[in-house]
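Sequence in, structure out. Go.
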Amino acid sequence: MKNLRQKIESSLRYSLLRLVLLPQIIVWMLGSFAAWQIAQSYHAHERDHLMREQLVLVRQTLQGSEPPAFRLQKAAQVLGVIHSLESPIGMRYRISSPDGQVLSGDASIPMPPNEPPNGEDPLFYDTTDGSGKRHVAALSTDFTTPAAAGSYKLYLMIAQDTTLYRQRAAALARNMLLALAGLALMVSALVYLGVQRGLQPLHQLEKEIEEMQSGALHRISFAQAPAEIKAVAHALNQMLASLNKQVDGEKRFINDAAHELRTPLAGLISQ
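Output:
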């Protein structure tokens, strides 16, 4: 087993496959990490965009010209519809007054930890309650009442369970990883076939040399071989020509010696 392992590790095929496939494995691992990050970022962006559009819709409802109670009731209805559509991901909502009083929705949704939302863009933050981790989007809106000299702000908050979004991101990443794995296997197969095809001239050279062991030395001819193999074949042909020349010289020496020794031996035998 040890000799077989040493033979495999010392083979040119193993060295080429290792040099080609090892970087591919590293690239696949980096691609897997990138796929996971892309999936997470994509779903986070889509989630925040959807929550922002929902809050903007509710804010437009509260900024209408109808009586305040009617606008609050209509906003609660809009949020109820959104809740029914988003029920698989555990959507909750809350409408609060500036003093923190809950006018509608779920009182368990906390206010922003640092400062209340202010401006056109929602404030996003994460919170944890007894049911798990939630992602919250908060937005402020001006709310006018006839009894007030002007208007005061209401705080709109939508909280969504992050479990389903993580599952969707994991599914997207898994699909991307499967595609990368299929591509990696296909490239590996092509690399292996390419290495096998590239080593065919070496196998042919080995066959030519083995045939010489049982017969006369002859030139090695490669009409369609890579330049590197042709260089090796040319060097072998030069060595074979030198060996043929030495063999021919030894044969001539043996023949001359036999001829020179034939007459004295014949005389000795006759005596």
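Check: Confidence is low (pLDDT under 50) at residues 4-9. DSSP finds six helices and five strands in the chain.
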